[in-house]
Design brief:
The complex is a heterotetramer. Chain B is α+β, with helices and mostly antiparallel strands. Chain B contains 14 helices and 13 strands. In chain B, a hairpin with a 4-residue loop joins β6 and β7. In chain B, α4 runs antiparallel to α6, α10 packs antiparallel against α11 and α12 runs antiparallel to α13. The radius of gyration of chain B is 21 Å and the shape is globular. Chain C is globular and about 45 Å long. Chain C is of the alpha/beta class. Chain D is of the alpha+beta class. In chain D, β2 and β3 form a beta hairpin. The chains are: A alpha/beta, B alpha+beta, C alpha/beta, D alpha+beta. At the A-B interface, α1, α2, α5 and α9 of A face α1, α4, α5 and α6 of B. One iron/sulfur cluster binds next to α10 of chain D.
Chain lengths: 259, 435, 281, 351
């Protein structure tokens, strides 16, 4: 039996998620023994034609051409995995969805007319069917490995969609939200990061996106009780996963509200 | 190859999306473009209106390969704007943080991106089959760098441990000393890397270049300092816009930069080693004399030599930083933070990212919200130089078979270890006030 | 604290001796433990279950779907719905599965002795009852009436169809029904959910035991009908399904009200469920 | 384990000076690692301690329970390798350890966990940690805002079950040893025999602490009352507030539920069967093929409240709540199950 083929595509992104694949160092050589890296421009000049067994797609769609990349990826691949905050919720560049792109271009470029970019930053799932979303900014190495291992074994990956708080307590962290009134999105954010921010002494900023059934209304009230202004609450929900539905909802609850 | 076209649709083994087009007609290059089609992500745009506290987390996302550099540069610029003074432990820990990323990034480039070119493989995967020990060394070096980044910042990509003012949770002395043992092992691996590179003869391609790098009197400059060049440029971050000129070209989503009134310039490891060799750690200076190349060097193909010299330096300096830091840190970790008072202000900062000079500058309003953000990355600084190199280099390979010529051109680009995602985030020009 | 038995979470190797495809998504495996005294004699009662492990895939609770066989063999009938159940399908005769058990409460076969027996099953819910049917048909004289009402989604979803004739010969009366008959399929029996054939049962309240197993929503309506027909809660037994990680009352996942389904169940008299919260019943 | 006013079942009672605590910790440290409450980020969590200077033995609402030391948040159950035919191997046993600073309510919680993990099929992982642990408890001489141990009969004084029991007197520490091992440790510490006055002082301190209880939950007939109020509108309010974050179950010293999964290496030839904490507030908790028995957040939260204050009685013939107040202290939404249950007594509604 030939080895399963893996492809890695990139759209608008920072490449951090792809790098996490390379960061699997301890098992990287084992990995290339088990799978064929068929298309991965960041790591290899070699291109093996599809179809591919697993395809990771990093980044969000910001231009027409990228829609084509996404469609091709869908055609070429058996299992299509959208990675990262970009691939699951539009990424940091998704923040432009709440502003006028022309403003941004003018702010950033002398000749905005030479810049080619679309109005919105969309996650690939808005254009094609995605088989698995792997959130995180960047995706966690352990989860990335689990996705590959699970695909090789023919089972679902064990990712855990529960809130960051669950992991935070397993880490024996003191809850910063309660003990020091530090704004923290842990209760509504999906874990996978290992409860990183609270473990490193700061509030979670939601880079893995919302957990299942996130109660953003209650979270918003808690932040308000801590003294955050509506504008600050909107900013918290509109971070690198601003495109995720629950966080969109959370932001909407406070958008345009006065102090 | 009288009339032909070298076209690399998608440059492999570089970070981000770029391509290359060279049109040769009658034996002459008639057109040459290094296209950057990595879509722009408008970081400077959406940073406006965000709190200074959020900036390091956002700018990190400009680049997954050098997130630490972006975070630290923004922190230094914001601290300049807010007038924050940090204790020496914070400064030392920041340098350790930055160097950890040098180890990771340089090992990645030397072994995974560049070595396959020199040894004739499409990627490290094929290379690993013939040279397993070499691959194992590469990965072990990279992992030490990554683990040190993660120890300080939580994870290797987009770490969370550094904020304006310092570190909310410094690593424990015990954890630092544990990783120091691994760095001591890495020292040997870094030296072996120099040995391996010394055996590689770079293509002959020397050309006069203006090299720009940070310098500090007492150490190998990484975070902060003055930028200087071998042609007499000297500037602080605050003077950057007076001394560096920026132009936009239609074929690229990235700006081009020149020294005001002069030509393109080069930043990165080669510039640093050329200008600051005397500040390298002794072991790195030793290695320098054995690496098969004489520095200062005008040959861009010797960038890889400079990079592995810096690998040795970084490992060495990390060890010595840990020796200094460990006794000064609290036993159970805990915060290492200077007080931050929010006020309006403007600040700029330079750091040396693994790929070279990185510039951030911000204006904050009285609520600590960003009014203006400027970010210029090393790859952006180098882009014009890369094109210039290609104009010079292509005629030498123009008579070789297309395949070979294309690979040679790609190698010219990979010398710079370009980070294209980084390069597509640029200066804003008109200052518009918000908030 | 001093009882220090062998690790109850540790599975033991069992070898697959035979595989029979029941339907497009359901398979019966006959297995036997590979080592130890249980290799030749594995005792359990119908209604109980094992936890089956495939290393690297996970563990799942699966009912024993037979009476103890000769040479210590036992059957599992498995519908592929997830990780372990799908991976099982990839195995061949001679392959090893890791198992621990038997766990849980059995069907009240002893109590049913000498009494009428009404079995109502839906879909894969027939699997845990097959052992009961084997017991009844092989010791027919021990019981009064024996009736099975069995419903599935379509004719293609019916389990154990090749055994139906044996069961009939063994004195079991069978009433079959399906929710729907796809075009072109042959079907001579009832169409409709299982409650639509409940009138055909002749077992009456007071004289017998009713055993019900199927999706919880199906059991809800069946129990409702039974109660309406005058069956007492103590005569009705159901088998519940819950998420289980341990099977031995520690992982907490199978709780409803004050019960652990893995140990207090899976087979429970309805009288023990009635009025409790946390089930549909 | 009702300690109030009762005489502790001690083999030996001694009083050590203030500095004795440090000697005690060091004596314990000679037997293995010592864990105790240490300050961290404005609260106390169980961490490894080297001497008395690391310890914070005050009773504050911000103290985590020692549950994690016995029922590990993450525990490898088996390692299995293809090369060995996947015969599962249990991880190496941990050695002797001491836990110091265990509160009376937590001692009651440990007794509850002992019950959970030593039923028909005793759980060897918990049992090993438990048997390896020397428990040095400490009586409470003050009660924090959310404590209601007096209602649950679990504190503020402890009567039995300890190896060592400390009480902070005005001058020094009263140390009682409940086991031979406790006595042996006590021998390594400078101390004098306790007098009747010392014991009276202890009783008095505990009585005073109990009198200071700010919170109450009447437990008589509580399970029945809870059942009657299963559909009470107050649960709808809780549904809106609850985040489903499982902080309550994580900090609760008696919550024991877990999830199990296999961690596999890239080559697929090494497997670690692992279990980790989970709790009923998590969406995934009751998911099965074809649905979820508690897909509604409100039902999930109720499972927590009802398990503690109602179902546990059926399961283990006691309540699952020891009155430590942690779930309400650490709930970001400040949901207070005790106050909710107590409000049923008043017929009214409250948090
Ligand atoms: C006492 C008892 C006896 C049983 N007897 C039998 C039997 O005889 N035969 C039989 O076939 N089954 C039986 N079952 C059912 C069987 O145990 C379950 O179906 C079990 O989950 C199958 O394990 P699995 O690993 O194959 O599926 P899993 O991978 O656990 O998946 C089970 C189902 O849950 C869904 N699921 C899991 N996680 C998620 C998620 N995060 N999001 C969405 N959906 C999810 C899956 O899609 C699937 O539908 C019994 C159950 C019990 C409790
Ligand atoms: S999700 Fe984050 S880490 Fe991943 S590519 Fe996007 S910005 Fe980078
Ligand atoms: S009750 Fe509180 S702590 Fe528990 S899950 Fe709900 S919000 Fe979280
Ligand atoms: S239910 Fe709350 S108060 Fe009761 S023992 Fe658990 S955490 Fe403590």
């Amino acid at each position: 039996m030939s080895k399963p083929k893996i492809a890695v595509y990139k759209l608008a992104s920072c490449s951090g998620c792809q790098l996490q694949l390379v960061n699997l160092e301890p098992e990287l050589l084992d990995l290339v023994g088990e799978v064929e890296i068929a298309y991965f421009p960041m790591a290899s000049r070699k291109t093996v034609p599809g179809p591919y067994d697993i395809c990771f797609i990093e980044g969000s769609i910001t231009r027409e051409e990228e829609v084509e990349v996404v469609k091709k990826a869908r055609e070429d691949c058996r299992v299509l995995v959208a990675m990262g905050a970009c691939g699951t919720a539009g990424g940091p560049q998704g923040l432009k969805n709440w502003a006028r792109v022309e403003d941004f271009k003018e702010r950033v470029y002398q000749r905005p007319d030479w810049i080619r970019t679309g109005e919105k930053s969309l996650s690939p799932g808005e254009k094609v069917k995605i088989d698995l979303y792997l959130p995180g900014c960047p995706v966690s190495r352990d989860q990335l490995k689990e996705v590959i291992v699970a695909a090789l074994l023919g089972r679902k990956p064990y990712l855990g969609d529960w809130p960051v708080c669950v992991q935070c307590k397993m880490n024996n962290n003191v809850c910063l939200l309660v003990a020091s009134k530090t704004p923290c999105l842990g209760p509504v954010t999906r874990t996978g990061c290992g409860a990183l921010c609270p473990t490193w002494g700061r509030g979670c900023y939601g880079c893995f996106g919302p957990c299942e059934d996130a109660n953003v209304a209650s979270m918003g009230r808690i932040l308000r009780d801590l003294g955050l202004s509506p504008e600050e609450i909107v900013r918290r929900f509109r971070h690198v996963t601003s495109g995720a539905e629950a966080f969109r909802e959370g932001a909407k609850l406070y958008e345009g509200q006065q102090d | 190859m009288k009339d032909s076209r070298i076209s690399v649709g998608y440059l492999a083994r570089v970070e981000g999306e770029g391509g290359l087009d060279v049109v040769v007609s009658g034996g002459q290059i008639t057109d040459l473009r290094l296209r950057v089609f990595e879509p722009p992500r408008f970081f400077e745009g959406f940073l406006v209106g965000r709190s200074y506290q959020e900036v390091p987390d956002f700018v990190s996302r400009i680049c997954g390969i050098c997130p630490v550099s972006h975070q630290l540069t923004s922190i230094l610029a914001l601290e300049a704007a807010l007038g924050v003074e940090v204790p020496p432990e914070v400064t030392a820990l920041r340098k350790l943080f930055a160097l950890s990323q040098y180890i990771q990034s340089h090992a990645l480039h030397a072994y995974l991106l560049a070595a396959p070119d020199f040894l004739g493989y499409p990627s490290v995967i094929e290379l690993a089959q013939d040279h397993p020990a070499l691959a194992a060394r590469a990965l072990s070096l990279k992992r030490v760098g990554n683990d040190l980044t993660a120890l300080i910042g939580g994870r290797e990509v987009h770490p969370v441990g550094a904020v304006v003012g310092g570190f909310p949770r410094a690593p424990t002395p015990r954890a630092l000393l544990a990783i120091k043992e691994r760095l001591e092992q890495a020292r040997g691996e870094a030296l072996e890397t120099v040995g391996a590179i010394a055996g590689i003869k770079p293509p002959e391609f020397s050309r006069p270049t203006e090299f720009v790098a940070l310098t500090q009197p007492d150490q190998y400059a990484v975070n902060g300092g003055r930028a200087v060049s071998n042609r007499g440029l000297e500037m602080t971050a605050a003077e950057y816009k007076k001394k560096i000129t920026q132009t936009q070209v239609p074929h690229s989503n990235a700006y081009h930069y020149t020294v005001a009134g002069r030509e393109s310039f080069m930043v990165g490891p080669l510039a640093r080693v050329n200008l600051n060799a005397r500040s390298l750690m002794p072991a790195a200076q030793e290695a320098l004399s054995r690496c098969g190349v004489a520095f200062p060097s005008d040959n861009p193909f010797t960038s890889i030599h400079a990079r592995v010299i810096e690998l040795v330096h970084s490992v060495e300096e990390c060890i010595s930083l840990i020796d200094r830091l460990a006794p000064a840190l609290p036993r159970r970790g805990g915060p290492l933070l200077a007080e931050v008072k929010v006020k309006a202000g403007e600040g700029a900062a330079f750091t040396e990212a693994p790929r070279g000079l990185l510039y951030h500058s911000y204006t904050l309003n009285s609520r600590g919200l960003v009014e203006r953000a400027d970010i210029v990355t090393p790859t952006a600084h180098n882009l014009r130089r890369m094109e210039d190199d290609l104009w010079q280099f292509v005629p030498r390979v123009i008579d070789r078979p297309l395949e070979e010529a294309t690979l040679a051109c790609e190698m010219v680009v990979r010398n710079y270890d370009p980070c294209i995602s980084c390069a597509t985030h640029f200066l804003r020009l008109d200052v518009r006030r918000v908030g | 604290m001093s009882r220090h038995a062998a690790n109850p979470l540790k599975p033991e190797p069992a070898v697959i001796k035979a595989i029979r495809q029941e339907t497009y998504d359901t398979t019966t495996y006959t297995m036997g433990f590979r080592e130890g005294e249980r290799a030749n004699r594995f005792s359990f009662e119908p209604g109980q279950f094992n936890m089956l492990t495939l290393w690297g895939i996970g563990e799942a609770a699966i009912s024993l779907s037979s009476l103890p066989g000769g040479n210590g063999t036992f059957d599992h009938t498995v519908r592929s719905v997830g990780d372990v159940t799908n991976a099982l399908r990839r195995l061949k005769v001679g392959d090893t599965v890791w198992a621990r058990g038997p766990y849980g409460t059995p069907w009240p076969l002893k109590e049913a002795r000498g009494r009428d027996l009404l079995i109502i099953a839906g879909g894969i819910g027939l699997a845990p009852l097959r052992g009961v049917i084997q017991a009844v048909t092989s010791r027919r004289s021990d019981f009064g009436k024996a009736e099975l009402l069995y419903g599935a989604r379509t004719p293609a979803d019916l389990l154990y169809t090749t055994e139906f004739d044996d069961w009939r010969r063994g004195g079991l009366s069978l009433t079959l029904t399906v929710d729907a008959v796809p075009e072109g399929a042959r079907w001579e029996h009832n169409v409709g959910v299982v409650t639509t054939v409940m009138d055909r049962a002749t077992v009456r309240p007071g004289g017998g035991v009713v055993m019900v197993c199927g999706p919880e929503i199906m059991m809800k309506f069946v129990v409702k009908e039974l109660l309406a027909r005058g069956f007492r809660p103590g005569e009705i037994f159901v088998s519940l399904e819950r998420r289980m990680e341990c099977g031995v009352r520690v992982c907490g996942r199978c709780q409803f009200d004050g019960r652990f389904v893995c140990r207090d169940g899976p087979v429970l008299p309805y009288s023990d469920i009635k009025g409790r919260v946390g089930t549909m019943l | 384990m009702d300690g109030l006013g009762e005489r502790a079942t001690a083999l030996e009672r001694r009083v050590m000076p203030e500095e004795g605590l440090d000697q005690l910790v060091r004596a314990l440290a000679r037997r293995g690692p010592v864990y105790g409450p240490v300050r961290q980020d404005g609260a106390t969590v169980y961490g490894e301690v080297e001497g008395a200077q690391d310890l914070d033995l005050r009773c504050t609402p911000f103290t985590y329970s020692p549950k994690a030391l016995l029922h590990r948040p993450r525990q490898v159950l088996f390692r299995a390798e293809r090369a060995e035919g996947f015969v599962p191997r249990e991880p190496e046993e941990d050695g002797r350890m001491s836990i110091i600073g265990v509160r009376p309510c937590d001692m009651s919680a440990i007794a509850a966990l002992d019950q959970v993990f030593s039923q028909e099929y005793p759980d060897p992982y918990y049992q090993r940690r438990r048997q390896n642990a020397l428990l040095a408890a400490v009586n409470c001489v003050e009660m924090a805002e959310h404590c209601f141990c007096t209602s649950m009969g679990t504190g503020p004084g402890l009567a039995a079950g300890f190896d060592l029991l400390l009480t902070r007197l005005e001058h020094g520490w009263l140390v009682e040893a409940g086991t031979e091992e406790g006595c042996a440790v006590l021998k390594e510490v400078e101390s004098r025999t306790a007098t009747d006055r010392d014991l009276q002082e202890k009783e008095e301190l505990i009585r005073k602490a109990a009198a200071g209880a700010k919170k109450q939950l009447q437990t008589e007939g509580l399970p029945g009352l809870m059942r009657d109020r299963f559909e009470d509108p107050v649960w709808k309010e809780r549904r809106e507030e609850c985040l489903g974050c499982a902080n309550c179950t994580s900090v609760c010293p008696t919550c024991f539920c877990y999830d199990a999964y296999d961690v596999v290496n890239v080559k697929g030839d090494k497997v670690e069967r692992t279990r980790c904490w989970t709790g009923c507030p998590v969406v995934d908790f009751a998911r099965v093929h074809g649905g979820n028995f508690r897909s509604d957040r409100g039902e999930r939260f109720k499972q927590f409240a009802y398990h503690k204050l109602c179902y546990w009685k059926d399961q283990f013939d006691r309540l699952g709540c020891v009155g430590c107040g942690r779930c309400m202290t650490w709930c970001p939404a400040k949901i207070d199950i005790a106050e909710t249950a107590q409000s049923f007594r008043r017929g009214g509604e409250a948090r």
